[in-house]
Design brief:
By secondary structure, the chain is an alpha/beta fold. It has 12 helices and 22 strands. β12 and β13 form a beta hairpin. α10 runs parallel beside α11. The structure holds MU-OXO-diiron. The site of MU-OXO-diiron has 8 residues, from α2.
């Protein structure tokens, strides 16, 4: 279904209610997603981004409701990932006269994905293409979130189309932020940032400054996933500035896995210690909890406490994955602590501590190793560990 979001600007994308795993199986999308594509009808016709390949026919139907696809003059491919460029071949089959507009790095990635000899135009930051009454202005946005990523701005409509940036995996009947549940929207936008954009936070801050410095008026921010920011559009820019700073919050997250309940009992006692000191916490059994939802909660926590029993002189698999995520997402969490039960070897706590310190965390206290099932004094020690972490959070 086509939606005219502004005079002469049409949403022609696809709402994917079904998808539950994204980027292969790396990212959970419990609320589905949308692939947003925008058709601009001026003296010239421009399509900004496409949709994932399986839904190319739906995109073409939508385009045909507005114009004959053969009339398209420009197809802007802001980013090569197949959720946005996957239908490019189908569009170009019906728009043989169109020029494919890409960033300089897109001149590598788009041909690399499609292997077609189309007419390309690579544009740098500040370059413009006239559509008649309006113009497209381009801003390269490398690492938001690929080197090829680009923002496209439409003059006269004050419309910023930043591709993945400011998006959310949120399928809905509605196209605008003021039409949906604000709490669900905030959660999905934050989850998206935490799981995809956190490693590039310094670049996010620089890019936002650069775009704001251009002084372009912004009436709408129309990302390539989820709803369009129409009501107070800059609110999401301000959230990104806040998130990119990664200022830790006064709360802790306890992340653990357990085989026969001993490490879980330590996690419970640690939680008691945190609560006794007035520091709120959440605890997650990693093997039973969605990894991306956990990471959204870990993002900007004041401390993480990670627990694993020892298995084959190592860690349980879910804990290994979590520790890898903490490293590669470059979360800036100031305080960490480790705990775990063991039967014979007991290497897990040392291994966790090495990973936490490699992520730049300072250890609030020596890790807690407990052999067999915890005795009362072990649970007291776990509570003390929770108190020590609470004190470290408060000390800042
Ligand atoms: Fe980087 Fe939505 O693709």
């Amino acid at each position: 279904m086509v939606n005219e979001i502004m005079p002469g600007v049409f949403w022609v994308g696809y709402v994917d209610w079904d998808i539950r795993r994204f980027h292969g199986h790396e990212l959970s999308t419990h609320r589905g997603t949308t692939y947003n594509a925008y058709l601009i009808r001026d003296e010239k016709i421009a399509l900004v981004d496409t949709v994932w390949g399986p839904y190319a026919d739906r995109l073409m139907e939508n385009i045909r409701e507005v114009v004959d696809p053969a009339r398209i003059d420009f197809v802007v491919a802001n980013h090569a990932e197949p959720d946005h460029s996957g239908s490019l071949s189908e569009v170009m089959r019906h728009a043989p006269n169109a020029t494919v507009v890409v960033s300089p790095r897109g001149a590598e990635s788009i041909p690399g994905h499609h292997h077609q000899d189309w007419r390309f135009r690579a544009v740098k930051t500040g370059e413009r293409i006239s559509l008649g009454r309006s113009e497209l202005i381009f801003v390269e946005a490398p690492m938001l979130h690929w080197p090829d990523s680009m923002f496209t701005y439409l003059t006269g409509r004050n419309l910023l189309m930043p591709n993945d940036a400011f998006g959310q995996h949120y399928a809905t009947d509605f196209r605008f932020n003021d039409q949906v549940d604000p709490h669900a929207l905030y959660h999905e936008a934050l989850k998206y940032y935490a799981n995809i954009l956190t490693p590039f936070s310094p670049l996010v801050l620089k890019k936002i400054q650069e775009v704001l410095a251009l002084g372009l008026p912004v009436d709408m921010i129309a990302p390539s996933h989820g709803v369009i920011w129409r009501q107070e559009p800059l609110q999401i820019v301000h959230h990104y500035q806040e998130w990119a700073e990664q200022k830790p919050e006064r709360r802790a997250v306890v992340l653990y896995d357990t085989m026969w309940g001993a490490t879980r009992r330590l996690a419970d006692a640690i939680g008691d210690g945190l609560a006794a000191e007035g520091v709120p916490h959440q605890a997650f059994l990693l093997s039973a909890t969605d990894r991306n939802e956990v990471l959204a909660e870990v993002f900007r926590a004041g401390a993480v406490l990670v627990g694993s029993p020892t298995l084959n002189q190592g860690l349980l698999g879910s804990v290994i994955v979590l520790l890898e995520d903490l490293k590669h997402l470059k979360f800036r969490i100031p305080v960490g602590a480790a705990f775990g039960s063991y039967g014979w070897g007991g290497e897990s706590v040392k291994l966790i501590e090495e990973k936490l310190t490699a992520c730049g965390m300072r250890l609030a206290a020596p890790g807690l190793r407990v052999q067999w099932q915890p005795r009362p004094e072990n649970l007291v020690a776990a509570e003390s560990l929770g108190r020590a972490v609470a004190a470290a959070i408060k000390a800042g």
